[in-house]
TrEMBL record:
Gene3D superfamilies recorded: lithium bound rotor ring of v- atpase
Residues annotated as transmembrane: 12-34, 54-77, 89-113, 125-151
Membrane topology label: Multi-pass membrane protein
SUPFAM superfamilies on file: F1F0 ATP synthase subunit C (SSF81333)
Annotated protein name in UniProt: V-type proton ATPase proteolipid subunit
The keyword Ion transport belongs to this UniProt entry's keyword annotation: yes
Protein family according to the UniProt entry: Belongs to the V-ATPase proteolipid subunit family.
Record's signal peptide: none
Coiled-coil zones: none
Subunit structure: V-ATPase is a heteromultimeric enzyme made up of two complexes: the ATP-hydrolytic V1 complex and the proton translocation V0 complex. The V1 complex consists of three catalytic AB heterodimers that form a heterohexamer, three peripheral stalks each consisting of EG heterodimers, one central rotor including subunits D and F, and the regulatory subunits C and H. The proton translocation complex V0 consists of the proton transport subunit a, a ring of proteolipid subunits c9c'', rotary subunit d, subunits e and f, and the accessory subunits ATP6AP1/Ac45 and ATP6AP2/PRR.
Length: 154
């Protein structure tokens, strides 16, 4: 049987890993911003008047990173010397849920934003459809945030 000090060190390690996993949400946001940004740059050559209207995917990708930041701050503020292994695994699960769902949402927003912005430049009626698909992609990250908040408050 392991000593209490070894278990406490293991629990601290799991919490730190959880904070690192929250960075996956930032990676998804970065990819979504970069992919949408290339679409905006290509579209602005043909239709420069649509640049401000086409910023929406970039803003939505940035919100994904905020989800990861919120969960990371909540967990970082609850780190103490009296960490149980159970609580550490819950926090690791919270980090995984917000991080991986943020990564997936960022990829979806980037791909949809790039294609949608380029398509909207050619056919303006595609704008509403692009926004709806972006909303559904953003909700994937929101689901991860909700699960992470539930896990981190148990």
């Amino acid at each position: 049987m392991q000593s209490q000090a070894a278990l406490r060190n293991y629990a601290i390690f799991l919490r730190i890993m959880k904070l690192c996993v929250c960075l996956c949400a930032a990676l998804g946001a970065a990819y979504g911003t970069a992919k949408s940004g290339t679409g905006i740059a290509a579209m602005s050559v043909m239709r420069p008047e649509l640049i401000m209207k086409s910023i929406i995917p970039v803003v939505m990708a940035g919100i994904i990173a905020i989800y990861g930041l919120v969960v990371a701050v909540l967990i970082a503020n609850s780190i103490s010397d009296k960490i149980t292994l159970y609580k550490s695994f819950l926090h690791l699960g919270a980090g995984l849920s917000v991080g991986l769902s943020g990564l997936a949402a960022g990829f979806a927003i980037g791909i949809v934003g790039d294609a949608g912005v380029r398509g909207t430049a050619q056919q303006p009626r595609l704008f509403v459809g692009m926004i709806l698909i972006l909303i559904f992609a953003e909700v994937l990250g929101l689901y991860g945030l909700i699960v992470a908040l539930i896990l981190s408050t148990k």
